Structure formats: structure tokens, C-alpha cells
Amino acid sequence: MDTTRSTRRSRRTWSAVGLAAAAALAVTACSDDGPGADPSGSAEQRSTASPPADLAAGQVAPDGATTDVVTGLEAPWSVVPIGDDGDAFVSERDSARVLELRTDGSVREVGVVDGVRHGGEGGLLGLALHDDDLFVYSTADDGNRIERYDLTGETGSYGLGESTTVIDGLPANTFHDGGRIAFGPDGMLYASVGDAGERSEAQDRDSLAGKILRLTPDGDVPDDNPFDGSPVWSLGHRNVQGLGWAADGTMFAAEFGEDRWDELNVVEPGEDYGWPEVEGTGGEDRGFVDPVQQWTTDEASPSGLTVIGDTVFVANLKGESVRGVPVSDPSTSTVYLAGDLGRIRAVLPGPDDTLWFVTNNTDGRGDPRDGDDRIVSVPLTTSH
Predict the structure, then answer these.
(1) What gap in Å lies between CA 117 and CA 94, rounded to an integer?
(2) What is the spatial distance between Cα 137 and Cα 194, in angstroms, rounded to a whole number?
(3) Average confidence score pLDDT of the chain
(4) Partners of residue 181 on adjacent β-strands
(5) Among the listed residues 317, 295, 322, the one whose alpha carbon sits nearest the alpha carbon of residue 121
(6) What is residue 285's three-state secondary structure?
(7) Model-level pTM?
(8) Mean pLDDT over residues 311-340, rounded?
């Protein structure tokens, strides 16, 4: 569960890498300066996922044994691919470290983001790549912020260069910090900002709390945003931590509820999603947009989200699972790997037709297992 229930609480397509590289991700020993894959030389197959017999044509589903890509991470929060070769950047929430994960399974420290204040759900959160710059969302003494870092070096030697503030002073608290950033198909930067415990501000257009924001990569307000001069793209959110787009441009967002309903929403510009007036469905007659699907807070606590083909994959913390949702019928879903790996923070497309997901059992709310936290890979299949 991502937040205390009493208060409750880009996609960038990877080109396939060779089978040998994919295997190396799972089995190669770690480097000396960071966590890594199983040094024994054989990846542990922890569980197996199978698609349902009635999987609709065109749907993507996990199908096969899971393997560890890397182990020994400390409260990882976000993973983003580097180019098309299978490397990735990883953020660690509490240490404020950015790590480089190589296709051979090794991990090294790229740098530590300056001025990060860790506490509760705050710290180093979302990452996004754009035009060879690394964008980071983090908590500082004066609130949450998004910064753009020039990357120095190259593959195997990346470093954090000069930073530029994109936006700062965003609402922050020990809980409900949002933190997901992603570049949409329009090239704009989208960011989720939690209500930071100030519930009513989610309905205030002049506040950035409880919103999804849309900015240019330089932090300017696009001319076609729904509210003149405002970075607000949508409002009435409690704590969005999953953002993704289908091939047709449909934008999905996964959102933590309080005590009743977590939500999957289709996000449209300028629309109001109801929090705190409405939790879950039932707001349409009051001018709010209902979620396309809702789950009880005990079975979900949805965090990261990605869209692969015609399927939305949602990471579940309290639900300890990965959920697959058809883009064509987002009112239904299938649960995979329930309880097998503990809390799941993020999901993303892996190389060679795999799904990667990130465990979060060392963030203070989970039950760490040997080797946690980890990035796990599972093969994907498409129904025909």
C-alpha cells in the first residue's frame, strides 16, 4: 500500500535486443559499485504467469517464468530505458541515487540528485528521458520539483551534469506526493502532483495540488493547455502515480483512492476527476469524470503504468500483482502473479518482448525477501 489508509491515502518503446543480451540481463554478476543480477550465474525463476484462456485477440499478456534482471536495489521507484539497446536508468527513492543498469546485468551509480529530502513517500521519484537529458522529480526543502540534468559521458560512464529547474515549489508532504513524469506523444512533459494531504486543493484550479500538469520540456505552459496560462491539464486527483498512452493517443492514469476505491482513468484535458467530492464512480451527474475501472484499496493500490500494444499494465502495491487492462475495453482486467513477489511499484516494456516490473518491499511498507528489491522480467505473448 502506498500510503496510510487512515489518511490514504514514457512509455518509450524498446527495440528488441538479441536473445543473448536478454539472457545476460538475467544472469550476469553485478559490478563492484552497485547491486546486480544473481552472481551465481543462473537467474532464479520465482513464479510463472499464464494468460487466461479467454484472452481477447490482440491482447498482450505475461506468459512464462519470471527471472530476476537485477537484485539488491534500495526502494527503487522509476526505471526508464536508455535509447534502444536495453540499458536503463533507475531511481532509488531514499538514497536519491540514479543508477545505470547495463545490458550485461551490471549496475553503477550515475550520481546523487542534490538537495533531495527523504521522508515518508517523498524523495527521488520519477525519471524521464528527452533529447538525451534526464528529467527527475524529487522532494526538496521547499517542495517537490522537476529538474533537467545534462548527462555527461556515454554508455557505461554516464554522469549527472548541470541541472536546470523545470518547475519547483510543487505541493509536498510525507504522503500523496504524486511523482510520475512522462513525455507524451505530443512531446510535452506530463507530471502527476498529489494532493499533499490538502484534499480541497484538488478542486482549486489555482493550486497545483491534486493535478496532472502539462509543460514544455523547458517548463513553459503550452498555448493549447485547457486553462489559459496554467500548467494544469486535469484536476480532481488524489494521488496519481501511473501515466501512459495508447497508440491512438488515449491517456491513462492510475490513481490511489482513500478507503474505498482506487481508479483507472482516461484523462482528457480540462476535466475534473472528482476528488475529494467523489471516490470511484458516481460523479457524472455532478460534472465529474468517472473512472473506467475501479478496485478496492486492498486489492490494488495502483502505482506505475505502461501501455504495450492493446494492453494497459498496472503495478499494484497493496495488491502485490500486475494487472492487465484492455485498451479497447478498460472496464475489465486480469490479475497476474498475485502475491508472488510482494509490492510492485512500476512496470515497463522490457527488451525482446518482455515485461519488466519493479518490486518495492524495502520502502518501509513491505516485507523484504532475500535479494529485494529487484527488477523482474517475464515473457509476453499476444493473443491471435
Answers:
(1) 8
(2) 12
(3) 90
(4) 191
(5) 317
(6) helix
(7) 0.90
(8) 97
